[in-house]
Amino acid sequence: MQKGLVEVYTGDGKGKTTSAFGLVLRALGRGKKVIIFQFIKSSSFPSGEVIALRMAFPEVEIIQGGSGRFINTKPTEDDIALAKILYEKILSAVSSGRYDIVVVDEVFPAYNVGLITLKDILDLIEKKAENTELVLTGRGAPEEVIRLSHLVTEMKEIKHPFRDGIKARIGIEY
Ligand code: ATP
Ligand code: MG
Predict the structure, then answer these.
(1) Residue nearest to atom 19 of ligand 1 (CA)
(2) How many domains does the chain have?
């Protein structure tokens, strides 16, 4: 049995979510069992990578827990309740030993806006099954998570077209 590690893709530059999906693609090519969770994002507005994966690999579970509304100030009770339901599913998947890879996309923004706690994230790491690779993404990874992880990559923004007023493009940004 291959030992699973904890990976973090963080930072303010582009490429965290797409890296996680790139890793998923590689794993699926090797017959690995994968499950993907996404905080904040909603199933009503799937991004291109989710649509593609569903077409090519219908067996892959992709579970979104966001309401689809933008959380710009404090999350509502409903937002927190939705996040809690998603979190319980993640904890169950990551500790079950049934998956080679568990991706938790946008987990750090979920923490930073107050949808989940730091302890919630630390519990995922602590209760992770031995064989499972846990991939955590999103800007603003807390120090303690970085300390406990085996692989940490920071996407650093050097340039982004958004700054020149170029809006998000279909098939590139989403
Ligand atoms: P991607 O989904 O392209 O891999 P990401 O996961 O690193 O990007 P997020 O912080 O999750 O980026 O941002 C979500 C959205 O914002 C994506 O559509 C992404 O392309 C875009 N984005 C990423 N980095 C920046 C940036 N520095 N400035 C503006 N928009 C960005
Ligand atoms: Mg992202």
Answers:
(1) 173
(2) 1
- pLDDT per residue of the chain (174 residues) written in tens, 0 to 9: 789 999 999 999 999 999 999 999 999 999 999 999 999 888 888 999 999 999 999 999 999 987 766 666 788 888 999 999 999 999 999 999 999 999 999 999 999 999 999 999 999 999 999 999 999 999 999 999 999 999 999 999 999 999 899 999 999 999
| Dist. CA 130 → ligand 1 center (Å) | 31
Instruction: Determine how β-strand 34-38 pairs with β-strand 151-154.
Output: unpaired
110 CA to centre of ligand 2 in angstroms: 11
Which of 12, 14, 169 maximizes ligand 1 atoms within 8 Å of its Cβ, making it the mutation to test the pocket?
14
- Give domain status of residue 174, yes or no: no
CA distances from 55 to 16, 59, 61, 82, 95 (A): 22, 10, 12, 26, 28
pTM score, two decimals?
Answer: 0.95
CATH of the domain at 88: 3.40.50.300
What is the number of the ligand closest to the CA of 9? Answer: 1
